[in-house]
Write a structure and sequence with these properties.
Strand order of the largest sheet: 6-7-8-3-9-10
Strand content: 35-45%
Number of helices: 10
Shape: globular
Helix content: 25-40%
Radius of gyration: 25 Å
């Protein structure tokens, strides 16, 4: 049985639909990430799960019990959860006291509080700051205080709202390491909202893609990122090559797609006549200076229009009669002298093409 289940959840503010027909299940001990662009409704969803408001319609189940409107159970259930806000508030006192307050309110003995807080301070790497005023800390340190304050109460569910938003790369890395540590050391169920899709990939067992208030796809990160269900998901998860076409032939599940300026071959069950989008990830494209013998079914000549260095990688944009983006190692780009206006041959396998229906 799922620990958290959200069924047909809708939320409206005035005439505006914030959330529409949300259905998700999160198992005990699972790390589930809700990924989506800013304004998609992620924070609203977390607030409703934390019982901080009532949905317009739909139900929320905690450990099999419908807790949507059970006022008598709200405090009890909320004590079993902890919510770390995107911009956490800390009290104007020491880091130690900030973390200890929740335990004091629960009537925990002082000796036990000292032990628990010291252990948590060590885990979040803030032991040296135990006497410092929490309001003097950096943004990343404040976020670690907030997570420590949540974890010290040993919640069954930890809700994280954009835990690394507006943090520098070093602080972001420390927060991600801390979240990963919590996942591995505790049996805490984590539901995290983030617009950083790579963060969701790194930390979550499963992800749900929330766009314009709707969950468009749910699954393990590998499946969502390699096999998006529609164009909106494909665009969000970074599939830069999304090419419109029509299937004009099919034989043994190898389909030919007319894209106007040529054809693309792919593996698909879709029928002849279907209007589709061919999705090709940039890292699946191989570049050469001339056509080479290969098992790849798709080969296009074009002119490089842009080269952008991305650390150890280079992003190559090519005009093949249609726009195509490839991602190669910086070393390969240098060896091939891939520069603007250079003519290249781009190849990719039929198995590297993911097909989705257009308009869905």
């Amino acid at each position: 049985m799922s620990l958290i289940e959200v069924v047909d959840l809708h939320q409206k503010y005035g005439e505006r639909d914030i959330l529409k027909n949300i259905n998700i299940r999160v198992d005990r001990g699972e790390a589930f990430a809700v990924i989506g662009p800013t304004g998609a409704g992620k924070t609203t969803l977390l607030r409703l799960i934390d019982l901080l408001g009532l949905p317009t319609s739909g139900r929320i189940y905690f450990d099999g019990i419908d807790v949507t409107e059970l006022r008598r159970m709200k405090l009890e259930v909320r004590r079993r959860m902890a919510f770390v806000l995107q911009k956490p508030v800390v009290f104007n006192t020491s880091v130690y006291n900030n973390i200890a307050y929740g335990l004091k309110w629960r009537g925990v003995r002082e000796s036990s509080i000292r032990k628990k807080v010291s252990n948590i301070l060590e885990m979040v790497d803030l032991l040296a700051y135990r006497k410092s005023n929490a309001r003097t800390l950096s943004g990343g340190e404040v976020q670690r205080v907030a997570i420590a304050r949540a974890i010290v109460n040993e919640p069954e569910v930890l809700l994280l709202d954009e835990p690394t938003a507006n943090l520098d790369p070093i602080s972001t890395s420390k927060i991600e390491e801390l979240v990963a540590n919590i996942i591995h050391r505790y049996d805490t169920t984590i539901i995290m909202a983030t617009h950083d899709m790579s963060q969701g990939q790194r930390l979550a067992d499963r992800i749900g893609v929330l766009i314009n208030g709707e969950i468009l796809q749910t699954g393990v990160p590998r499946d969502v990122f390699s096999s998006p269900l529609n164009r909106e998901v494909a665009e969000f998860v970074g599939v830069e090559n999304i090419i419109d076409g029509v299937i004009v032939s099919s034989q043994d599940k190898v389909v030919t797609i007319d894209i106007g300026s040529g054809v693309i071959e792919a593996i698909s069950d879709y029928a002849v006549g279907e209007e589709v989008c061919a999705c090709v990830r940039p890292e699946d494209i191989i570049l050469a200076l001339s056509r080479v013998s290969s098992s790849a079914r798709n080969s296009f000549f074009g002119e490089i229009t842009q080269v952008v260095s991305l650390g150890p990688l280079s992003r190559i944009e090519i005009n093949c009669g249609f726009r195509l983006v490839a991602l190669v190692t910086k070393r390969s780009a240098e060896e091939l002298n891939l520069t603007r206006t250079k003519k290249v041959c781009a190849t990719f396998k039929a198995t590297g093409v993911h097909i989705v229906r257009r308009g869905r």
